[in-house]
Amino acid sequence: MTAVPTTDANLDEIRGGALAALENVTNPTEADAWERTYLGAKGELTAFLRRLGSLPADDRPAAGRAANALKQELTAAYETRSQHLAAADLERRLAEDAIDITLPGREPALGVVHPVSRMIEELSDIFALMGFQTVFGPEVETGRYNFDLLNIPSDHPARDVWDTIIVESDREEIVLRTHTSPMQARTMEQTEPPVRVVVPGRVYRYEAQDASHEWMFHQLEGLAVDTNITMADLKGVLRELARQLFGPERRIRFRCDFFPFVEPGVDFAVDCAICNGQGCRVCKHSGWLEMGGAGMVHPKVLQGVGYDPKRYTGFAFGLGVERMVMMKEGVGDVRAFAGNDLRFLRQFARFAV
Ligand code: DAH
Fold first, then answer.
1. How far is CA 3 from each of CA 6, 55, 59, 60, rounded to the nearest angstrom?
2. Distance between CA atoms of 308 and 327, rounded to whole angstroms?
3. The CATH number of 115-351 is which of 3.40.50.720, 3.30.420.10, 3.40.640.10, 3.30.930.10?
4. N or C: which end of the chain has fewer CB within 10 A?
5. 283 pLDDT exceeds 90?
6. CA of 221 to the centre of ligand 1 (A)
7. Is 282 a catalytic residue?
8. Is the Cβ atom of 295 under 6 angstroms away from ligand 1?
């Protein structure tokens, strides 16, 4: 056995072993390991080059050239192999991630407009045609706007804790508005007559729930103030509303009622469109469907916001929005609107967004 194997034999061994091992390399990790074993700083070829010094001087140039040639050959082989592996890897990942673009897509679930929102839009549109602007007000109100400026004094039963959800009562009375009427004073404070606004929005009452009572519901307030406004204007506007909503045949009815912020005050009803006023289950055999309260703005309310009641008059009204939908769509239970039952809401799918 020779102590130092001949240079050529050594290089041939390294070459044969390296190329055979490269054949078996199947992934980038193995390729890295291969590179370290054969070409790296601690690899076989480097070790061979280090041993060159121990060769007879005459053999060194040839051995050095042969070793460098082998290094180039193995480096090239390694690069080719790596490229193959990378390409194969890419192919595999593409195949794995492939999507079938011919499959039918998943249909996105489109929402619909809530019937109450839809009614508010419809009401806004109807009143816009009669010159009313739609404005919005805060749902958390002060006692001053919710009551005082509406001529509801502190000892009035409506201020009783049983009807009103009180948020704070220490320094100032803060409530969840019990109606949209506080926007009457807020609007008038912001502008001089003429005023023509409608105010849709949520209102809150501390109240037991049943088929016709909710602790949260929607109202739409109306207010018109100008010189020479009379009850005939109020009647004309509300009759037009009834006709736009329920058809040209409809008639309306006013009856005396009391609200502290109007004088005179009325409740108003529309004759039942289902039975044409003859009496049926929907109108509880009365022939009439109650729509809301209304009246001529009380002089004290006008005075409270600095309007001269001798110069200006006005009318106001308040509608229950849920009531309007119930009458129009035949909904029997007000709790359905906020009940979050999709089977109920899907019936209004025609109110597409
Ligand atoms: N704010 C009253 C309520 O919630 C409804 C109402 C009645 C509003 C008469 C008005 C009105 O503007 O004139 O019961």
1. 9, 12, 16, 17
2. 39
3. 3.30.930.10
4. N
5. no
6. 7
7. no
8. yes
What is the residue whose two structure tokens read 């290089």? 11
Q: How far is CA 44 from the centre of its chain?
A: 67
What pTM value is reported for the model?
0.72
Cβ of 186 less than 6 Å from ligand 1: no
Token duo for residue 197:
């606004």
The per-residue pLDDT for range 139-178, each reduced to its tens digit, is 999 999 999 999 998 888 877 766 899 998 888 899 999 9
Residues 6+ apart with CB under 8 A from 160: none
Side by side, the strands of the sheet bearing 140-142 are 140-142, 174-176, 166-168
Gap between the Cα atoms of 198 and 318, Å rounded: 9
Angle subtended by helix axes 60-97 and 44-51, to nearest 10: 170
Distance 320 CA to ligand 1 centre (A): 9
Residue nearest to atom 10 of ligand 1 (CA): 317
Asked if 331 is an active-site residue, the reply is: no
At residue 82, the 3 state secondary structure works out as helix
Could you tell me if 186 and 137 are in contact, meaning their C-beta atoms sit under 8 angstroms apart? yes
Question: What are the residues whose beta carbons fall under 8 Å from the beta carbon of 345, sequence distance 6 or more?
Answer: 112, 114, 115
pLDDT for 107 equals 86
What does the pLDDT look like over 191-237, one tens digit per residue? 999 999 999 999 999 988 888 889 999 999 999 999 999 999 999 99
How many angstroms does the Cα of residue 276 sit away from the middle of ligand 1? 27
Q: Half-sphere exposure of residue 314, counting CA atoms within 13 Å on the CB side?
A: 28
Classify burial at 160, counting beta carbons within 10 Å of its beta carbon; exposed 0-12, middle 13-18, buried 19 or more. exposed
Q: Where are the domains of the chain?
A: 7-96, 115-351
The DSSP string of 184-220 is HHHHHHH-PSPEEEEEEEEEE-----BTTB-SEEEEE
The set of residues, in sequence order, having a beta carbon less than 8 Å from that of 199 and lying 6+ positions away, is 134, 135, 136, 137, 180, 183, 187, 220, 221, 222, 223
